């Protein structure tokens, strides 16, 4: 472990980024934490993170206010399975009209414009 990191021991994982900032008393409240994250003042794993509820696991590195924090898991805690990240680029379709059939329009029944008995137009709420 590097000496420049402050070690943070997690009792359970994952923990959301905004909650971690509150627990460590780096911010006054959750609103301030979310604001600082969205403005780009927080780094996770050597990249700026703007995801307020990003899930952090043991081994992740948090950077805030010039300090570096290394997350570790306590001995009695059970490690959580990290979600698999999609490394393949998304395939975008160039034309959707050729591959998918056109949507059928909903058929409406024609209602009388004026009621025969009262001479008034009917009101539809749907």
Characterise this structure.
The chain has about 130 residues and is of the alpha+beta class. It is built from two helices and seven strands. The protein has helices spanning about 15-25, 30-40; strands spanning about 5-10, 15, 40-45, 45-50, 55, 60-65, 65-75. The strands form two sheets. The protein has a five-stranded mixed sheet, with no helix packed on it. A hairpin with a 2-residue loop joins strand 3 (about 40-45) and strand 4. The longest helix has 9 residues, at about 30-40. The model has no long low-confidence stretch (mean pLDDT about 80).
What would the keywords be for this entry?
elongated; 2 helices; 126 residues; single chain; alpha+beta
Short description:
The chain is of the alpha+beta class and 126 residues long. Helices cover 13% and strands 21% of the residues. Strands 1-7-6-3-4 form a five-stranded mixed sheet, with no helix packed on it. A two-stranded antiparallel sheet has the order 2-5.
User: What gross morphology would you assign?
Assistant: elongated
Sheet with most strands: strand arrangement: 1-7-6-3-4
Mean pLDDT: 80
N- to C-terminal distance? 65 Å
Global Rg? 27 Å
Total of helices: 2
Strand share of the residues? 15-25%
Class from helix and strand fractions: alpha+beta
Annotation, overall tally of beta strands: 7
């Amino acid at each position: 472990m590097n000496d420049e990191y402050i070690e943070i021991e997690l009792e359970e994982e994952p923990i959301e980024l905004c909650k971690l900032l509150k627990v460590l008393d780096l911010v006054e409240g959750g609103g301030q934490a979310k604001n600082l994250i969205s403005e780009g003042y927080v780094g996770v794993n050597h990249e700026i993170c703007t995801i307020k509820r990003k899930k952090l696991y043991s081994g992740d590195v948090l950077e805030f206010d010039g300090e570096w924090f290394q997350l570790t898991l306590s001995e009695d805690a059970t490690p959580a399975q990290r979600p698999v990240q999609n490394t393949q680029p998304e395939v975008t379709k160039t034309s959707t009209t050729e591959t998918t059939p056109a949507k059928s329009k909903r058929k409406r029944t024609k209602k009388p414009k004026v009621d025969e008995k009262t001479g008034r137009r009917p009101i539809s709420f749907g």
